Amino acid sequence: MTYPPLRQQRLADGITERLEAMILEGSLKPGQRLPPERELAERFGFSRPSLREAIQKLAARGLLASRQGGGTFVNETLNNGYTDPLLEMLSRHNEFHLDLLEFRDAMEGISAYYAARAPRLPIKPCLFSDLRSLMVALWGLTRLKRPS
Question: Which of 19, 60, 102, 144 has a 20 to 30 A CA-CA distance from 121?
C-alpha cells in the first residue's frame, strides 16, 4: 500500500485559517475593519507578504473586501443569513458538521412538539415560507462535501 506524501502547510494557508477562525468566533465582525497589515503581522508573528496572500485568498472567497487606501473589511454579506462564502468557510471546519446535526436534531424535535401540541392552529403564510427557506438551507448544508 502506498501513502501520498504529506504536504507541509504553507504559511499563508495557516494565516487564512486563523483569520477564518476569528470571523467564526466573532472576534472579527461583519463590516469591521481589520487592523493594518503591519500591526496584524507583528501581533501574530508572520510576514506581511504572507498576510497579503491570505487576505487575497479570503477576498477571492468573498469573506473580506479590500478598499484602495481604505483598509480591509470583513464582508457585510455575512449578516445576510446563509451565503455561499460563509457556508464554504463553515464546511471546512470538522466540528461544524456536528453542530449542524445537533441543530437539526433540536429543530426537528421542537417542530414536532409544536405540531403535535396545536394541530388545529392555522399556519401563517410568512412562517411557512420562512420554514421552507430554512429547510432548503439545511438540505443544502447536509449535501456539502465533507473536507478530507
Answer: 102
